[in-house]
Write a structure and sequence with these properties.
InterPro entries: NAD/GMP_synthase, NAD_synthase, NH(3)-dep_NAD(+)_synth, Rossmann-like_a/b/a_fold. Homodimer. Catalyzes the ATP-dependent amidation of deamido-NAD to form NAD. Uses ammonia as a nitrogen source. This protein has 277 residues and is an alpha/beta fold. The chain has a four-stranded parallel β-sheet, sandwiched between helices. Strand 1, helix 2 and strand 2 form a beta-alpha-beta unit. The longest helix has 23 residues. The structure holds nicotinic acid adenine dinucleotide, adenosine-5'-triphosphate and magnesium ion.
Length: 277
C-alpha cells in the first residue's frame, strides 16, 4: 500500500523465489550464454561498466566465471551524481571480489563539454541524467572497439518491461546476460554465486542525479513491480485480480501497464517505412 513517502509496497508480494537447483540452472545458462556470444562474435574479451550496484556486480561475476578474469575489463565511471561508497564498492568488486583489470574514468568533463556545446539543457535533470548515462556508453564502445571486445549490458527483465533505462545509454550494449531475471531474482542469484549480502541487498539506484532511487522514481518497490510484471504483464492475470492478490491499489497495476505500453519503442529496432518498390 502507499506509504508516507508515496512508494507503493505490496502487502503480499508474489513469490518469485528460485530453488537452489533453479539457481544453479540459471547460473549455467547465463555463463553459457556469455561464452556463446563471445564465440559467435569471434572475440575473446568483454568490457562493461561497474557501478557498485547489484546488476553490474552479478554480470561481471558471471562473466569471470564464463571467460576467466583476464577476459573481463571493468570501467568505473563516476560523475558528480554518484555516491562515493557506490564507486568504492565498484572498485571493491573489481579488486577484491573478481581480481579483474579496470579503469576509473571521470565523466564530469565529458558531460560539461556537451553542456557547453548545448547550454539550453543545463538544469534539465532528466536530460542531463540521460547524458551522463550515454557518456558511459560512448566510453564502453571506445574501449570495446580498441580491445576488440563485446560490451556487456546489465539490463534485467523488470527494467526492460517498463523501459526503465536510457535508450542508447545503458541500453546500448551487445547483449544483456541477465535479461531473463526479475530484479529480486538478480539479488537471489547474486547471493547464490557468492556476492556479499551488503552488495546484493543494496537499494537500487540509477544514480542519474544525486539521491535518485528506482523505487522513488517509479513509485513502487521492486517486490511490487516484479509481482505486477509476473502476474499481470507476463502472466495475463487481470488487473483487478492482480491488485487483490498482492494487496495494492489497482492504480499501481495500471501504472505498470502504462509504463510497459509506452516503452514498447525501447524494445524494438528503430522503425522505418516499408520500401515503396
Ligand atoms: N513512442 C515513441 N516512439 C519512439 N521513440 C520514442 C517514443 N517515445 C519516446 N521516444 C524517444 O525516447 C526518448 C526517451 O527515452 P530515454 O531517452 O531513454 O529517456 P526516458 O525514458 O525519459 O528516461 C530514462 C528513464 O530510465 C531511467 N534509467 C535510466 C538509466 C539507468 C537506469 C537504471 O536503472 O540504472 C534507469 C531514468 O531514471 C528514467 O526514468 C525520447 O526523447 C524520444 O527520443
Ligand atoms: N558510475 C558508473 N560507472 C560505471 N558504470 C555504471 C555507472 N553507473 C551505471 N553504470 C552502468 O549502467 C548499468 C545500469 O545501471 P543500474 O543502476 O541499472 O544497475 P546497477 O547499478 O548495476 O544495479 P542497481 O540497479 O541495483 O543500482 C550498471 O549496471 C553499470 O553497468
Ligand atoms: Mg545502479
Amino acid at each position: 500500500m502507499a506509504t508516507a513517502d508515496s512508494v507503493v509496497r505490496a502487502e503480499d508480494p508474489f513469490d518469485l523465489t528460485f530453488s537452489e537447483a533453479e539457481l544453479d540452472a540459471h547460473r549455467d545458462h547465463i555463463t553459457s550464454f556469455i561464452e556463446g556470444q563471445v564465440d559467435a562474435a569471434g572475440v575473446d574479451t568483454v568490457v562493461m561498466g561497474l557501478s557498485g550496484g547489484i546488476d553490474s556486480t552479478l554480470v561481471s561475476h558471471l562473466a569471470v566465471e564464463a571467460l576467466g578474469r583476464d577476459a573481463v575489463h571493468g570501467l568505473v565511471m563516476p560523475s558528480e551524481a554518484n555516491r562515493a561508497d557506490n564507486m568504492s564498492d565498484a572498485e571493491r568488486v573489481a579488486n577484491d571480489l573478481l581480481g579483474i583489470d579496470y579503469d576509473v574514468i571521470e565523466i564530469n568533463p565529458l558531460v560539461d563539454a556537451f553542456l557547453d556545446a548545448y547550454p539550453d539543457a543545463e538544469g534539465d535533470q532528466l536530460a542531463v541524467g540521460n547524458l551522463r548515462v550515454r557518456c558511459r556508453a560512448v566510453l564502453n564502445y571506445l574501449v570495446g572497439n580498441h580491445e576488440e571486445s563485446l560490451v556487456l549490458g546489465t539490463g534485467n527483465r523488470s527494467e526492460a518491461l517498463v523501459g526503465y533505462y536510457t535508450k542508447y545509454g545503458d541500453g546500448a550494449v551487445d547483449c544483456h546476460p541477465i535479461a531473463a531475471l526479475y530484479k529480486q531474482q538478480v539479488r537471489q542469484l547474486a547471493k547464490h554465486v557468492g556476492v556479499p549480502d551488503d552488495l546484493a541487498e543494496k537499494t537500487a539506484s540509477a544514480e542519474m542525479w544525486s539521491g535518485q532511487t528506482d523505487a522513488d522514481e517509479m513509485g513502487m518497490d521492486y517486490d511490487t513491480l516484479d509481482s505486477i510484471l509476473a502476474l499481470h504483464i507476463d502472466g495475463g492475470v487481470p488487473a483487478a485480480a492482480t491488485a487483490d492478490r498482492i494487496g495494492v491499489p489497482i492504480d499501481a497495476v495500471e501504472t505498470v501497464r502504462e509504463m510497459y505500453e509506452s516503452s514498447a519503442h525501447k524494445r524494438a529496432m528503430p522503425p522505418g517505412p516499408e520500401p515503396l518498390y
